[in-house]
UniProtKB/TrEMBL annotation:
<keyword id="KW-1133">Transmembrane helix</keyword>
<protein>
    <recommendedName>
        <fullName>Protein YOP1</fullName>
    </recommendedName>
</protein>
<dbReference type="InterPro" id="IPR004345">
    <property type="entry name" value="TB2_DP1_HVA22"/>
</dbReference>
<keyword id="KW-0812">Transmembrane</keyword>
<feature type="region of interest" description="Disordered">
    <location>
        <begin position="169"/>
        <end position="190"/>
    </location>
</feature>
<keyword id="KW-0472">Membrane</keyword>
<comment type="similarity">
    <text>Belongs to the DP1 family.</text>
</comment>
<dbReference type="Pfam" id="PF03134">
    <property type="entry name" value="TB2_DP1_HVA22"/>
</dbReference>
<feature type="transmembrane region" description="Helical">
    <location>
        <begin position="50"/>
        <end position="69"/>
    </location>
</feature>
<feature type="transmembrane region" description="Helical">
    <location>
        <begin position="101"/>
        <end position="125"/>
    </location>
</feature>
């Protein structure tokens, strides 16, 4: 007889298993009162009790992670990329330079936006830092190249729209500077 079989046949294990099955069946009865959960169970073939327990466990994990997530996400967003950026500067190729330049532009843009709305976001989205850490990993990891994706779809179009806006101030050319000098001279001679 194996050690696993001995443990499973032990009276204390049997008693704990019976008690757990009882509580799961009671929870299933309570959750059956909600048609949404019953529909979820029918569509996904995942027992509603296990889905509920999994959701509660996920919330506990997110809450526990979120307690330390702000410094962790900031360290993760700076530490590894800084090291890999220095490594990219020292390498002869330019592909890694593009990856890390786009990362820093997107990361900086994201942090800039975050500085305005952090309190509002934290109020409505309590596990923000846990998801921010996942987002930062998506930006960094070469398998996803999230920084390049966001740069091409969000940051660059915003930059192009602002840079080429019709009301934006255009730099003066030497011809317009000469015209301005002539107007000043004419006004002062009058």
């Amino acid at each position: 007889m194996s050690a696993t079989q001995k443990v499973q046949q032990h009276p204390a294990f049997q008693q704990a298993q019976d008690k757990a099955n009882y509580y799961v069946s009671q929870l299933d009865k309570e959750l059956s009162k909600y048609p949404l959960l019953t529909t979820f169970e029918q569509r996904t073939q995942v027992p509603k009790t296990y889905a509920f327990i999994g959701g509660v466990v996920l919330l506990i994990i997110l809450h526990g992670f979120n307690a330390f997530a702000s410094p962790v996400s900031n360290l993760l967003g700076w530490g590894l990329p800084a090291f890999l950026s220095v490594k990219a500067i020292e390498s002869p190729g330019h592909n890694d330079d593009i990856q890390w330049l786009t990362y820093w532009v997107v990361f900086g843009f994201f942090n800039f936006l975050e500085s305005f709305a952090l309190r509002l976001v934290l109020y409505y989205f309590p596990w923000y830092f846990a998801f921010k850490t996942t987002f930062i990993l998506w930006l960094q990891l070469p398998a996803f190249r999230g920084a390049e994706t966001l740069y091409g779809t969000v940051v660059r179009p915003v930059f192009v729209n602002v840079h080429h806006a019709p009301n934006s101030v255009q730099p003066q050319t030497s011809a317009s500077a000469d015209q301005l000098r002539d107007r000043v001279a004419a006004a002062s001679s009058e």
